[in-house]
Amino acid sequence: SQTIHQWPATLVQPVGSPLSLECTVEGTSNPNLYWYRQAAGRGLQLLFYSVGIGQISSEVPQNLSASRPQDRQFILSSKKLLLSDSGFYLCAWSVYSGLSEAFFGQGTRLTVV
Amino acid sequence: KQEVTQIPAALSVPEGENLVLNCSFTDSAIYNLQWFRQDHGKGLTSLLLIQSSQREQTSGRLNASLDKSSGRSTLYIAASQPGDSATYLCAKAIGGNTGKLIFGQGTTLQVKP
């Protein structure tokens, strides 16, 4: 069966510090991968998606970047965090097709102080 | 701009009651619609996926319907239980093979014993 791992679960970082959140998927190959953010009191917003190794699409202009160094690994990064980067970050995967079901990780609660 | 709206934002019912959560979306071009459950501070759990060619899906006490012509989906929960208390999110998949999701703001359900 397929599983998705996301870490860390919680993170408190000072403004201006770097960020690296990691997500890995097991039990499938060539998945679509996604990073979503859920800000307090707001819905989930798609930040990045990837349909293959090294292929990253950004949905909104922001202080963050994403990379996919391996088929089942997706990384969310920032060189210098802003207060506005605080939120709940969720990684997700689906089979390479718009018809398929999406599965989410348990999320990372990021607080920038 | 594509939007997904969920009404009501919050709902409180006594245990045992049958209930309906509503989801409406702009633009009838849809690949699938997915319902998720989110417990407080946790990731998303997929409940039901309705393909654009389908009208409904059932899983246990849950039944989801899709009406593309009116841009609506409903999630029916039969015989509600306190364990059903959570936030329920609907999401519309757009964009062919990318599987990108647009989420509603969610309905927070409380089932009282």
Summarize the structure in short:
The complex is a heterodimer of chains A (113) and B (113). With 113 residues, chain A is mostly beta strands.
Helices, strands, pairings?
The complex is a heterodimer of chains A (113) and B (113).
Chain A: E1 3-7, E2 10-13, E3 19-26, E4 32-38, E5 44-52, E6 55-58, E7 65-70, E8 73-78, E9 87-94, E10 103-104, E11 108-112
Parallel strand pairs in A: 2-11
Antiparallel strand pairs in A: 1-3, 3-8, 4-5, 4-9, 5-6, 7-8, 9-10, 9-11
Chain B: E1 4-7, E2 10-14, E3 19-25, E4 32-38, E5 44-51, E6 56-59, E7 62-67, E8 72-77, E9 86-94, E10 100-103, E11 107-112
Parallel strand pairs in B: 2-11
Antiparallel strand pairs in B: 1-3, 3-8, 4-5, 4-9, 6-7, 7-8, 9-10, 9-11
Please explain how this structure is put together:
- The complex is a heterodimer of chains A (113) and B (113).
- Chain A is mainly beta and 113 residues long.
- Chain A has strands at residues 3-7, 10-13, 19-26, 32-38, 44-52, 55-58, 65-70, 73-78, 87-94, 103-104, 108-112.
- In chain A, strands 2, 4, 5, 6, 9, 10 and 11 form a 7-stranded mixed beta sheet that branches. Chain A has a 4-stranded antiparallel beta sheet with strand order 1-3-8-7, with no helix packed on it.
- The N and C termini of chain A lie far apart (38 Å).
- The model of chain A has no long low-confidence stretch (mean pLDDT 92).
- Chain B is mainly β.
- Chain B contains no helices and 11 strands.
- Chain B has strands at residues 4-7, 10-14, 19-25, 32-38, 44-51, 56-59, 62-67, 72-77, 86-94, 100-103, 107-112.
- In chain B, strands 2, 4, 5, 9, 10 and 11 form a 6-stranded mixed beta sheet that branches.
- The model of chain B has no long low-confidence stretch (mean pLDDT 93).
- The interface between A and B is medium-sized, with 31 and 29 residues.
